[in-house]
Amino acid sequence: MQTRELVLHTGAAALALGLMATTADAQESYNLRFNHVLGPNEPFHQGFLDWAERVEERTDGQLTIDVFHSSQLGVEEDIIEQIRQGANVGQNTDAARLGNYVPGIAVVNGPYFLEDKEQAFQLSESETMQGWMDELASEHGIQVVCFDWVQGNRHFFTNTDVRTPEDLGGLRIRTPPAPIWQESIRALGAAPTAMNFGDIYTGLQSRAVDGAELVYPNITAANLNEVLDYAIETGHILLTNFQVVSSEWFEGLPDDVQTALVEECRTAGQETSEVIAQAVEEAKSQLQDAGMTVIEDVDIDAFREAGMGAYEALGLTDAYETVRGELDAMGE
């Protein structure tokens, strides 16, 4: 009798172990198709590949991320709409576009809002920012994974020597199609012209636009110095990028996979931001060697003052002052 009980007990244990192994083998896997508008030579692309590799390794392959450069999955606005519908796609975007859904968050993309990348990293501690991200997720289906991806200071790149906001008068400057971006460029003195990133070169060639406002590595990566003569160092926006996915898709991930996705996003973003800071200086030097004229002695005070008009035009002055107050308090 004892022998029979031992056999039954051993058999039950083996069955339990077998079920556990089967469950582990059947562990559900997930995939994210991540899109961005930048070219394969941009530092951000390598940063996204690093993020993907780390997430796959940390989750033992449970979550994989396929990275698509140069808008291979489609234009940014279309991808964000797919995200809102619950698709397993992600997008590198900015506060300007997210401001189409939660207006206040657009201040992050406003003129002279952030001083440096460290301040950008601190934004996650802002109570107001946390509220805006919750609203994006709960009411609009957009989950912010992280926004530690600082692409550097944006400057005006033109074929005209510019020193003051008045010098931008009449110039058509390419901007992304979002209200805060349009109003920022208008407040700074130029005529904003919405155009997709991939169309800038031909737009400049055909004179549909007279210039663009971008970061230095954008110019070298897309060879835009072939159709632009001047770099005007206004530094009017410290571009902070947001990585977004579907909140419905995100909530369907196991908790540990969610944590891995977020934490590795922040780590890769901050590392890439450091790479970008070095790449900016290298790109600037490369452009000067290629014949581009860099204008450093611009009237920054005049540009700063003019830039406040963008917040006023969009009714974002209170949002600006609230978040700036929170950031200033963190720095004390």
Automatic annotation (TrEMBL):
Main localisation: periplasm
Record keyword Signal present: yes
GO biological process: transmembrane transport
Any Pfam family the entry gives: DctP
N-terminal signal peptide: 1-26
InterPro entries reported for this sequence: DctP_fam, TRAP_DctP, TRAP_DctP_sf
Localization annotation: Periplasm
Keyword annotations from UniProtKB, A to Z: Periplasm, Signal
GO cellular component, one term: outer membrane-bounded periplasmic space
Protein name: C4-dicarboxylate-binding periplasmic protein
Species of origin: Palleronia marisminoris
